[in-house]
Amino acid sequence: MRSTGLPVALPNRTSKYTYGECSVRSHAPATRRSPEPAPGGVSTIGGVRSRYTPRPSINSEDGEDEDERLDARTEPSDMARRNREPVVMKHIVKRSARALLFDGEGRLVLIKRTRPGQEPYWTTAGGGIEPEDESVEAALRREVSEELGGRIERVRQVLLLTEEVPGGVRLQYVFVARLVSMDPSARTGPEFDDPGRGTYDVVRVPATRDALATVRLLPPSLAEFVRGDLHGLVALLEHEDGRTS
After folding, report:
1. Which of 225, 221, 217, 220 is nearest to 120 (CA)?
2. How far apart are CA 140 and CA 137, in angstroms?
3. Cis peptide before 219 (omega within 30 of 0)
4. Choosing a second label site near 37 at 20 to 30 A (CA), which of 45, 60, 93, 138?
5. Among 6, 2, 9, 212, CA closest to 102
6. Cα(128)–Cα(131) distance, integer angstroms
7. Residue-wise over 35-66: b if at least 16 C-beta within 10 A, else e?
8. pLDDT at position 64, please?
9. For 216-241, how does the pLDDT look when each residue is reduced to its tens digit (9 = 90+)?
């Protein structure tokens, strides 16, 4: 993914922000600014969380593991030090869009990844934002179509994951959406024809914390968010369904 050339102001490590009608909540001074939300609006359930991870990126031939394994580590003992550190302007070197998809029965739709010689893991549909994508949401819709043969509605951004990498930062925009149709036979992309990349199995997981505890959802920071805000995510979609019915 080529660099966007866009600077972004980031607090050190982890902060929480709420966009839209709510105010900013952060450990940083009020003069610090969060990254701009993606087009199409941002959910206000629990706030849109911005997690900053200053660690080296994970090497990956196709780049997808970098997004899936991105994690945030926050040490409470570092809080006072971080509060005194200035905001650092970083260039965005890669942007991705991912979706927490719920089907019509309220189940979470995930992709189980099984790669040769590795422990299986589960991830969400999504991928890199391409220069020809008109917006982050447009990129998300394209990725869902390519990876699931799917179509989505009620798209709302709920999370932003941020990681420092060589040359700048990598951003992942995470959305919640309703999966209204899916045809795995219509999936496209070279990854589905390359045995070296393993398998991509579409699975449906009940929207309960007990069910989520049985899958290894990556990245861990996303899994933590889903477990903590699961009921809110479901309620948000039900609210959106009611508004458009």
Report:
1. 217
2. 5
3. yes
4. 60
5. 212
6. 10
7. bebbeeebbebbbbbbbbbeeebeeeeebbbb
8. 53
9. 999 999 999 999 999 999 999 988 87
The pTM (predicted TM-score) of the whole model is 0.68
Backbone conformation region of residue 167, classed left if phi is above 0, alpha if psi is from -120 to 50, else beta: left
Token duo for residue 14: 């982890």
Structure tokens at 163: 């990681």
Q: Which of 244, 218, 196 is CA-nearest to residue 71?
A: 218
In terms of DSSP H, where are the helices of 113-219? 136-148, 209-212
**pLDDT tens digits, residue range 123-179?**
999 999 999 999 999 999 999 999 999 999 999 999 999 988 888 999 999 999 999
Q: Residue 244 belongs to what H/E stretch?
A: helix 220-244
Q: With b meaning 16 or more CB within 10 Å and e meaning fewer, what string describes 133-154?
A: beebbbbbbbbbbbbbbbebeb
How deeply is 125 buried, as exposed, middle or buried, from its count of CB atoms within 10 A (0-12, 13-18, 19+)?
Answer: buried
* Nearest alpha-carbon partner for 116 in 63, 194, 215, 204: 194
Q: Pick from 97, 152, 158, 156: which is nearest to 128 by CA?
A: 97
C-beta of residue 157 within 8 angstroms of C-beta of residue 37: yes
